[in-house]
């Protein structure tokens, strides 16, 4: 069963502008592909959780840049794309008494970004080579 685990990197960062961009830039320059990520924060610091294609290389690059990085095992599930798909899987684990600490998605090209000023961010991205996704498009997605 151990071959069913996935390595996740947790990078501890100051909660200031540009830190996530710096980390993702370092990984991109090193040819490391981010397959999934999650960011959580407090007023002073944040944790960037990453699933990447080259774990050892990513750890080396980030540590060399001065970041504190921890590696741990997580599981990845290919959910059924139907209403209740996520709830059904999580219920199996929760009903067994296993605590679910957090959940995030992987390998999707749709990424949610929470910003302080949504209208300004939309305006900034509207003339760039970035395609913003509407709520109607989210509702119509069929994988």
Keywords:
143 residues, alpha+beta
In short:
This protein is α+β, with helices and mostly antiparallel strands. About 35% of the residues lie in helices and about 25% in strands. It contains five helices and four strands; from the N terminus they run βαββαβααα.
Taking strands numbered 1, 2, ... along the chain, how are they ordered across the largest sheet? 2-3-1-4
Helices and strands: which structural class?
A: alpha+beta
Helix segment tally: 5
Largest sheet: 4 strands, antiparallel
Shape: globular
Radius of gyration: 17 Å
Write a structural description:
- A hairpin with a 3-residue loop joins β2 and β3.
- Helix content is 33%, strand content 24%.
- The mean pLDDT is 83.
- By secondary structure, the chain is of the alpha+beta class.
- It has a 4-stranded antiparallel beta sheet, with helices on one face.
- The radius of gyration is 17 Å and the shape is globular.
- It contains 5 helices and 4 strands; from the N terminus they run βαββαβααα.
- It has helices spanning 19-29, 55-64, 85-95, 118-126, 135-140; strands at residues 5-14, 34-41, 45-52, 68-75.
């Amino acid at each position: 069963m151990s071959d069913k685990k996935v390595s996740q990197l947790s990078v501890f960062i100051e909660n200031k502008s540009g830190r996530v961009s710096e980390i993702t830039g370092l990984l991109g320059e090193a040819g490391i592909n981010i397959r999934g990520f999650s960011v959580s924060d407090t007023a002073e610091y944040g944790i960037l959780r990453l699933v990447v294609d080259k774990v050892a290389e990513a750890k080396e690059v980030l540590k060399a840049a001065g970041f504190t990085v921890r590696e741990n095992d997580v599981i990845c599930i290919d959910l059924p794309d139907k209403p209740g798909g996520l709830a059904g899987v999580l219920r199996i684990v929760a009903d067994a008494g296993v605590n679910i600490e957090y959940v995030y998605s992987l390998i999707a090209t749709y990424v949610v970004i929470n910003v302080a000023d949504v209208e300004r961010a939309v305006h900034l991205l509207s003339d760039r080579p970035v395609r913003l996704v509407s709520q109607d498009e989210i509702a119509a997605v069929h994988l």
